[in-house]
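Researcher: Please predict.
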Amino acid sequence: MSKFIQLEVNTGAAKTWILLERTSKVAEIFTKVAKMYAIDRQLNNIMLSNQGRYLPFSQCESLGDYGLTHLSKLDLQVALPGGIWPLTAIKARKADLRPLPGFITVTTSPAEPDMISLEADPDEKRARMPCGHVIGPSSMTSYCRSLLSEGKFKFLCPSVDSKTGKSNCDKQWEYFLVRHVACLSIEENQEFEKKISENYLKKAEGLQQCPSCTVWCFKDSKMGNFVRCPMCKTGFCWACLRDWIASNNSRNCGNLDCDGRENREKILTECPPKKIHGCADCPSIRACPKCLLLVEHKDMCGHMNCPGCQYGFCFICLRGKTSSGAWPCPYLGNCPLAPRQAVDRLSSLTTEMRLVDV
């Protein structure tokens, strides 16, 4: 098989050919076309489509992700000065977005637009997240990539109030949900996990940002959920990160949809079971015993390395590799099943709430 492929570019008046390596990224098509026709290489100015689907300017997705092979045909459109098409005119690939029972549902209703792009194309699938807000694969990918580029490792719902422009949700989405909704390619998933790991190791787990001043704080697991930020003195609920509206000595914050459990604990206790070789009832999501990052089991055996800290452990019994690097149990899944994890048994932090230097 040749290392290179040729793509036909049709301008409507003429046809030409460009030569690319099979492993090229989609962005390289735009670069080649712009140079060939001496036009400004901006996403707004150049539009390329293949069989009616517009290609996004992506430096991560490859030609194969969009089904582009040798002799594939592309249609070129160029916006004239003063008549530039908006970004929303460019449609990403039709991702195979599937429901995830118990966590997300899929919608194509015109009444439920993408919260970021505001598009409500009935032919484009969008996910209704656990918090109730709707987002599509392309928006999820772009939004989360921007968060990771800012050094963050938690994915919070970006919904904003249409009148005030201020955030009205900020519920945390776990990465296994983000990955599922974004329909990430193998390369994108590797990119995201690497960046999450880098950001995570800088800031560590068990941290929360004060909802008022955004300073990073942590607390001892023996403390209740009512905490007061040492910096701005705001009192808030550690579980839902909203104002504490009940009395200070109450066990619950008073917000109707908060049951006092951290988001991680809800997922750990409510995720569906699955069969892993000889173990028929293993939780499908575990927290890494070392760094507490939530990890979803996809396939193969129960032996895995945490994508965050690279700690090797068994998904079934939760025991880690020995000092010599050997696995503590056979891969067949006949080791003792560890019970579902709870946040209060995972954390071993300090005895008081403090600021964290990050």
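Model: Residues 80-94, 345-358 have pLDDT under 50 and may be disordered.
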